[in-house]
Amino acid sequence: MAEDLINNKDIYFPSYLGTNDKLITLLNRASQTLCEWFSKADKNGPLPFDESFKCIMPAEDGNSEEDLFSEIESLLKNSFNPVHPGSLAHLDPPPLIFSILGDLIAAGLNNNLLAYELSPSVTLLEESLCKWFSKKLGFNDFSGGIAASGGTLSNLNALIAARNNAGLGTNPNSVLLVSEDAHSSFVKCIRIMGLDSTNLVRIKTDNQGRMDLDYLRKSLDKCSIENKKIFAIVATLGTTVRGAIDPIKEISEICKQRKIWLHIDGSIGGIFAITSIPIEGLNNINKANSITINPQKIIGITKTSSLLLVSNMSTLENTFNTGLPYISSKENILNRGEIGIQGSRPAEVIKLWLGLRFLGLNGIENILKSSIKRKDFFIKNISKNKFDIYSGPLHIVSFLPKKLELKDSDAWTQTKVNELINNNFMLSRPKFKGKYFLRVVMGNYNTKESHIEELLRLLNA
Ligand SMILES: Cc1ncc(COP(=O)(O)O)c(C=O)c1O
Questions:
Q1: How far is the CA of 251 from the centre of ligand 1 (A)?
Q2: Using 50, 70 and 90 to split pLDDT, how confident is the model at 295?
Q3: Which residues have a Cβ under 8 Å from the Cβ of 26 and sit 6 or more positions away?
């Protein structure tokens, strides 16, 4: 038992008096431990899990500082390391250093985004940052948004608002249209919304992975013949497996003609729209009713960091406002717990704000451009005779050996993933259109051309 700590009155919580020396010592030690873990990444590899980590549960008496630090070290040693240059499997880049600081400050503040009175400065910060993003994307003065813990929840906030806005809140005939390459979380959204899987209408994609407009029009007509009520169409701005972008301009025109809510799932590509990087479709995103952006996925804002931006804030208010009878309100300030699904919520906006302030628009652009550059370098140098390549304008590439039989893709990708991890490269193997692929996500700023050359040497061998 940690006698020295137990006898110290300030042990459990920060002291409101004095200097908090103990806390400062612990924070310094934790920073040291974390930074050592970062700098040992090269030696340990991206995924060093060796099953030595023991999940030890709380005992009768509290454990000592030494015990806890040794467990923290074991936990780190057995964790996925996004800082390693070979971490190229998923949309989980290294953490921005000012975002790490933001997480620390948010944890210490322990404010609650449920209500203004529990987070006065942070409520204003989230509101202002959502407005700033909305304006950057081309929305007007009525726009704004709400943060949520991840892209799935931001999309769900949007879909519930869309359905409510269409007056279809309890209608079992209400349907959602997404492309067949849209993220799997839309299946979850439909279930959560109390709808059947047939209420999720999947539109075929073309050979570039973009929603096929002819199929979209046919599906819309079919829905109207079958008396199905469409509450939204989702255009994906960056599909998960190949980074494709649906034809946003055309879809937005269809939505306008037919008075259908357009939601853009920009979990992967949305952030590109605040830069001058020329990517087709981005300059039309202000035609949408709502857009999800997920800065955790590419610029290194620490998880979770996701925003739903809407062209008209009243749609969120009308959908989610129930009144908070136990909370005081302030005129002209919305309690953030009344404009989205989540109630109590941490001050995640701090790490987004600090990360963005630290980078500036040039820094953001630099990170995004560098990811595209790495993708281009990879595609330029991978053997085109050997592999079929599936990619788009963003930083994701899926590939598979030419003429590989459907039945062999499972074994081939599994063998390859194992072989690569033994050489300190972590790639993913998404299942896509019935086949397994290898996927590389070039969002890791620490990955240099020399690493990509080494990866290609292993793949081309
Ligand atoms: C296109 C797309 N949308 C939504 C999501 C879900 O985001 P999250 O995992 O943050 O909930 C993902 C996750 O990768 C995604 O790729």
A1: 21
A2: very high
A3: 65
pLDDT of residue 18: 84
Please say if the pLDDT value at position 10 is more than 70: no
Interval between CA 293 and ligand 1 midpoint (Å):
10
User: 367-460 adopts what CATH topology?
Assistant: Aspartate Aminotransferase, domain 1 (3.90.1150)
Q: Residue 274 has what DSSP assignment? A: G
Residue nearest to atom 4 of ligand 1 (CA): 151
Residues with Cβ within 6 A of ligand 1?
Answer: 91, 150-152, 183, 185, 236, 238, 240, 265, 267-268, 294, 306
pLDDT(1) > 50? no
Distance CA 223, CA 218 (A): 9
pLDDT at 9: 45
Q: Are strands 431-432 and 396-401 parallel, antiparallel or unpaired?
A: unpaired
Q: How far apart are the C-alpha atoms of 121 and 117, rounded to whole Å?
A: 9
pLDDT score recorded for residue 26: 96
CATH class, range 103-356: alpha beta
| Tokens standing for residue 333 | 């300030």
**What does DSSP say about strands 144-148 and 306-310: parallel, antiparallel, or unpaired?**
antiparallel
